[in-house]
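Fresh eyes needed here. Kindly weigh in on this sequence plus structure tokens:
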Amino acid sequence: DRKKNSIIERCVSETGDTAITHYKVLKRNDNFDVIECILETGRTHQIRVHFAYLGHSLLSDTLYGVSSTLINRQALHAYEVEFTHPLSKKKVKYITTVPEDLNKLMENA
């Protein structure tokens, strides 16, 4: 749902649309955990909202959490995306490399 009095922020709400995020912890650290998410839905800010709601906002997410000196942006990356193409109706899948700043961060985890 949209957070009250905000045009940007979202929130978990009983009146909001269904949003389903599956996750698993890949690595634990004193400062942060490395996680993998699989989304059943694609809601605005879904991952960011769900983890902030759980009390574990994304590293350096200044909208739903706080900034960090460990990285200069949200520590979030879509490594693999798969969906049904709206025109061809075929499944398409894209896989990319993890950016260098996130690789360095995960090496220190």
Q: What stands out?
A: DSSP finds two helices and four strands in the chain. Residues 60 and 66 are 6 Å apart (CA to CA). Strands lie at 21-27, 34-39, 80-84, 91-95. The first strand starts at residue 21 and ends at 27.
